[in-house]
Amino acid sequence: MTLRLIATDLDGTLLDPSSTVTPRTRAALDAARSRGIHVVPVTARQPIGLRTIAADAAFDGWALCSNGAYAIHLTEGRMLFAEELPAETIRTLAAALRASIPGLLFASVREGGETFVAQHGYAEIADLSDHKRDPETMGGVPLEQVLAAPSLKFVIRHPELAPAALFETLKDLGLTGFEATLSGAPFVEVMAEGVTKATGLARLCRHLDIDRSEVVAFGDALNDVEMLRWAGRGVAMADAEPVVQDAADETTASNADDGVAQVIERLLG
Hints:
It comes from Microbacterium saperdae. One of its GO terms (molecular function) is phosphatase activity. This is Cof subfamily protein (Haloacid dehalogenase superfamily)/HAD superfamily hydrolase (TIGR01484 family). The chain is α/β, with parallel strands linked by helices. It folds into 2 domains: 5-82 and 196-268, Rossmann fold, CATH 3.40.50; 87-192, 2-Layer Sandwich (Hypothetical Protein, Haloacid Dehalogenase-like Hydrolase, Chain: A, domain 2). Helices cover 35% and strands 20% of the residues. It is built from 11 helices and 13 strands. It has helices at 10-14, 23-34, 47-57, 87-100, 128-131, 143-146, 163-172, 197-208, 225-230, 242-247, 259-268, and strands at residues 5-8, 38-41, 62-65, 70-73, 79-82, 105-110, 115-118, 153-157, 178-181, 188-192, 215-219, 233-236, 250-251. A hairpin with a 6-residue loop joins strand 9 (178-181) and strand 10. The model has no long low-confidence stretch (mean pLDDT 96).
């Protein structure tokens, strides 16, 4: 294939189990960039979460955050697009879920991912790794404030129930008007209707005049499935769930064994 863009998930994919970029992976990314190939992180993280690894990975161009809802140029600060979930949809969704599951907690990602509005009690069950934010900075507001404005990503969490159980309950409600997924984080993530990593990547590729056949994409979680199917070559990680591996054209080694670097090295010859 003619390779012009590498789209890669971060956690569980590009980053090793300690959430760092290994020397081998950095060398592979640099080799791709030296040939004029775009390297684009496509992540559930917000820009604040990218900043912690940007230097190690040399990310200085376009990035897709919030599972494809938000595109930003990391050096220039330019926003290409932002797809927000309407407040009315958020309120309808939260009301239906609360009627089914007591004890839920919610948070809203706003303003290009720079603002995190969390319900009272959310910070108490959060870790730094969850949102790449110190829980002590999350504060806490009444639920009405969390639901009062549009959101790039709406977060649904429970102190005891697993995200997969919340996700199944959400699907069983039969509601429409949003896109929900799991990224491996301890919560369900909800974006605007139709928004996935694939739709965000497609919009960025149109902007860059790159065909999908010229894209290789890497991922390991449910929120990567659409992107792996869309790309000219989709690559799943060795420890990805079966649905993710089924969506890909091939499976590489795990993130602990530089699986992304192995594929890039092979494609670059």
